[in-house]
Design a protein that fits this description.
Number of strands: 15
CATH superfamily of the largest domain: Glycerate kinase, MOFRL-like N-terminal domain
Number of helices: 16
Helix content: 25-40%
Strand content: 15-25%
Largest sheet: 6 strands, parallel
CATH class of the largest domain: Alpha Beta
Structural class: alpha/beta
CATH topology of the largest domain: Rossmann fold
Distance between the termini: 9 Å
């Protein structure tokens, strides 16, 4: 490692390399090729003269860039599109030369759906109602899609979905649990798009940027084009697990229990013939970003190691593990020798008990700062690859062994602010928030543990 490169500079370089690897347009170009009249995606070949029309449906934080990229391959066939993402719009360039302008982009709600989320769901359903047997529906799915596009089940309102989403998030439910419930309350999710397109025998190509640990197709954006292994009974058990059954809105209770009693059909399952006309391809993931981080760290002179891309659990508990690993390197040069860069990916959760402001990565960094107090030459950075952590403008935060001493000198009580889930205001006063703005992508979270 260069003597002139300190840990903060190194963290910035490593972060930048990881985000470049998660670029959604490049991810599509790595997996899609066009040769004359043929478009090749994996083992599948699409002969453009045999396709009547192409409909583009994009929802998620990378929807704009993915729409732009796919137009290079299908531009002469695309007749209609839906684009829904998370704003603000001035963070995006207009889609270059493909006649999609700001007026055509819907800004849905995230992590809780809003009116535009439902409008997007309605537009998707209307578009699919026009698709026919010789048409191709290109679905472009990325992180945040579950909230950004929604079409509530009959009798369930947007307000009902908003209440449920907020309640599950505040209870600390995992993304798998949250999406298992949402799939049974929404006509887009849980194979819903595949079902709607299949009713007209249209072909579906789904290009997916994964923001879920392990890349399960049925969980990413709640699996709109994938078989759903969960059931109404699973969804109801999750409601009960988090103590929500007594307070849940009546329309949600009635719909889920109707499914449990099998008086309404469940989501489509593996083996359903409708998936014979669906191709699902993961074009980008957390692992690719983490591997790029490792490669850049090595170029900077660190001994680097990717620990896992399956990290889950409470953010503050994960922080204690990160601190323990840093201490192990400091004291014993294990699992790798100094200078060291340990990388992990995944998605932690926060059980909200206080009234503060922050996101899971900011909370992880604050808990790590407390655990590393007084340990010199150590840095932990946690960030969301979408550039936005929780209801804040920060992707995450950076903690070092000196963070608590600096905070104490400013009169900040780290333990009290952690108890109040107020990591944002803690790090804002130290100028240690990671603020990079919306990145136009989302492949989950990354943590870098650096030891000089």
């Amino acid at each position: 490692m260069s003597d002139k490169l300190n840990l903060r500079d190194a963290a910035f370089e490593i972060q930048r390399a990881a985000l470049l690897a998660a670029d959604p347009a490049e991810a599509i170009r790595r997996h899609v090729q066009r040769v004359t009249d043929w478009v090749m995606v994996g083992d599948a070949r699409y002969h453009l003269p045999e396709i009547e029309r192409v409909f583009s449906v994009a929802f998620g934080k990378a929807a704009v860039a993915m729409t732009d990229a796919v137009a290079d391959f299908f531009e002469d066939k695309i007749t209609d599109r839906v684009v829904v993402t998370k704003g603000p719009l001035d963070t995006f360039d207009m889609l270059r030369g493909h006649s999609t302008h700001f007026a055509d982009i819907l800004l849905g709600g995230h992590p809780v759906p809003n009116g535009n989320s439902v409008l997007a769901g309605q537009r998707i359903a209307e578009l699919l109602s026009r698709a026919q047997e010789n048409d191709l529906v290109v679905c472009l799915i990325s992180g945040g899609g579950s909230a950004l596009a929604a079409l509530p089940a009959e009798g369930v309102s947007l307000a009902d979905l908003q209440w449920l989403t907020d309640a599950l998030l505040r209870s600390g439910a995992t993304i798998n649990e949250l999406n298992a419930v949402r799939k049974h309350l929404d006509r887009v999710k849980g194979g819903g798009i595949a079902r709607m397109a299949g009713a007209k025998r249209a072909t579906v190509l789904s290009l997916i940027l994964s923001d879920v640990v392990g890349d399960p197709l049925d969980v990413i954006a709640s699996g709109p084009t994938a078989p759903d292994p969960t059931t109404f009974a699973d969804a109801w058990r999750i409601i009960e697990r988090y103590g929500l059954a007594k307070n849940i809105p009546n329309p949600i209770r009635d719909h889920l229990l109707a499914g449990v009693r099998v008086t309404i059909p469940d989501t489509p399952k593996l083996g359903d013939a409708l998936f014979d006309r669906v191709q699902n391809v993961i074009v980008g993931s957390n692992r690719q970003a983490a591997q790029a981080a490792v490669k850049r760290a090595e170029q900077l002179g660190f001994n680097a190691l990717l620990l896992s891309t399956f990290v889950e659990g409470e953010a503050r508990e994960a922080a204690r593990v990160a601190a323990a690993l840093a201490k192990e390197v400091v004291c014993y040069d294990q699992p790798i020798k100094k200078p060291a860069c340990l990388v992990w990916g995944g998605e932690t959760t926060v059980t909200v008990r206080g009234n503060g402001k922050g996101g899971r990565n900011q909370e992880l960094a604050l808990a790590a700062a407390i655990a590393l107090d007084g340990w010199n030459g150590v840095l932990v950075e946690a960030l969301a690859t979408d550039g936005i952590g929780g209801p804040t403008d920060a992707a995450g935060a950076t903690a070092t062994g000196e963070t608590i001493a600096r905070a104490s000198a400013m009169g900040l009580d780290a333990a009290a602010m952690l108890a109040d889930n107020d990591a944002y205001h803690f790090f804002a006063q130290l100028s240690d928030l990671v603020i990079i703005g919306p990145t136009g992508t989302n492949v989950n979270d990354l943590v870098f543990i650096l030891v000089a």
